[in-house]
């Protein structure tokens, strides 16, 4: 996996047997196996579109999921806090 896929040169790219396109967050098919698990996160991201937009980058998606998995941190997310983080 590469966070800068355009930086990989052709010679290096050809050495891999399998290529995966990791596009980050999208709104379809994310919680196919456990719909209840993702519902609160999906509601949060639908509420805070600016955070949802940064999830297009895979590393940001991973960071949001790490933060989301900690209930104490999640409880601190209020609209003011989210806006301050984004500014």
Shape: elongated
Helix content: 55-70%
Measured between the Cα atoms of the first and last residue, the distance is 30 Å
User: What's the overall average pLDDT, rounded?
Assistant: 70
User: What is the number of domains?
Assistant: 1
SSE ordering: HHHHHH
* Overall number of strands: 0
Helical segment tally? Answer: 6
Biggest beta-sheet profile:
none
Radius of gyration: 16 Å
Low-confidence stretches: none
Structural class: mainly alpha
| Binned strand content | under 5%
Task: Based on the model shown, name its key terms.
87 residues, mainly alpha, 6 helices, 0% strand
Question: Your description of this structure?
Answer:
The chain is mainly α. The protein has one domain (23-86). The protein contains six helices and no strands. The chain has helices at residues 10-13, 35-47, 49-54, 58-68, 71-76, 79-86. The protein is elongated and about 45 Å long. The relative contact order is 0.12. The model has no long low-confidence stretch (mean pLDDT 70).
């Amino acid at each position: 996996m590469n966070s800068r896929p355009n930086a990989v040169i052709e010679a290096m790219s050809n050495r891999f047997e399998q290529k995966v396109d990791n596009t980050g967050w999208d709104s379809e098919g994310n919680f196919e196996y456990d719909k209840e698990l993702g519902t609160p996160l999906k509601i949060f991201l639908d509420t805070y579109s600016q955070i949802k937009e940064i999830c297009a980058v895979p590393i940001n998606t991973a960071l949001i999921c790490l933060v989301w998995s900690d209930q104490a941190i999640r409880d601190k997310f209020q609209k003011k806090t989210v806006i301050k983080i984004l500014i």
